[in-house]
């Protein structure tokens, strides 16, 4: 895929005087991924809902809009892109659209950190088409690389824990993938503390070390009941907690303050999750947080993201965006640093 990537033998004056080291890109601060030397943008981009909606894959953002979002994301320094092979009805379409973007932007490969996830069945229905056996892992990675039109995946997640396959077998497959430079870093998702401990105990070398755990977290709901304690564990063990659904699928935005105005096009409405924004106790909190944010010149979603980014152990956040304006607003949150008084004020509403 790198056929038209810049030739390192050709002088490129545009790249003269690149700084020796830097901690940001296009104005976006970066943070370390776990205890590795690898860095990712404070605010990334979730791409779950990118696909081909016209095919009935249950995505919400078609390729034309998605390609524009990806262009703008790089301009804003939102370079940590999160996908999964199964997103949108196990179609692989999120990876396909991202693959089209990479094919048309070969010069941007190193500017983007691409994370994807494997576990579930994708291209077949036998018991060997899913889970984390050696064969299932290798075949899933080969297929993702093809869809993504890439030579390597920056960060590969196991989408969930596999209670059947020996952990040593799964980790040995990761070691091989890293040695072959098909995968650069390894992470897990939807893991409990006990499952993380099992993996850490079985770690073979730095190549199969978990650098991140991606679990659900937002400031209203915190961690899910099943995954309590993972954020604290991550903070104590040099693992980045990558929060998914950090805006509670849009609930932590002003658009749900008046349920009468919620309708088609709003994600929670479209997904039938009406109980969330019709809950009065939740709405009271949203109203108070919105007022607080407005007093600081922020939107509710920016307050939510900025607050999360300062929690111990919290890695990057990966909100989805359906519009460029959402992406721009979320990106701005990556540069906001709340002071102690501000964080106390937020906490007093959340408690
Ligand atoms: N590992 C896993 O199992 C797992 C599970 C779920 C998600 N994820 C990852 O996490 C990413 C993010 O999660 P998510 O999409 O579930 O939820 P989210 O990021 O909390 O919410 C995204 C939704 O919020 C709305 N939104 C975003 N920015 C906004 C802004 N600035 N102003 C107003 N509204 C805004 C949009 O809603 P509208 O569409 O209504 O405009 C968008 O669809 C996914 O894309 C995926 O990469 C991983």
Write the layout of secondary structure elements.
Blueprint: E1 24-25, E2 28-32, E3 39-41, E4 45-46, H1 63-75, E5 80-82, H2 87-90, H3 93-104, E6 113-118, H4 134-148, E7 153-158, H5 167-179, E8 183-189, H6 193-202, E9 210-216, H7 230-236, E10 240-244, H8 267-270, H9 274-277, H10 280-295, H11 300-309, E11 314-317, H12 324-333, H13 340-350
Parallel strand pairs: 4-5, 5-6, 6-7, 7-8, 8-9, 9-10, 10-11
Antiparallel strand pairs: 1-2, 2-3
Strand order of the largest sheet: 4-5-6-7-8-9-10-11
Distance between the termini: 50 Å
Structural class: alpha/beta
Please report which band the strand proportion falls in: under 5%, 5-15%, 15-25%, 25-35%, 35-45% or over 45%: 5-15%
Q: Give the class-level CATH name.
A: Alpha Beta
Number of helices: 13
CATH topology: TIM Barrel
Q: What is the radius of gyration?
A: 20 Å
CATH architecture: Alpha-Beta Barrel
Q: Sketch the major β-sheet.
A: 8 strands, parallel
CATH homology superfamily: NADP-dependent oxidoreductase domain
Give the helix proportion (percent range): 25-40%
* Low-confidence sequence ranges: none
Kindly report the average pLDDT value.
Answer: 96
Q: How are helices and strands ordered from N to C?
A: EEEEHEHHEHEHEHEHEHHHHEHH
Shape: globular
Bound small molecules, deduplicated = NADP nicotinamide-adenine-dinucleotide phosphate
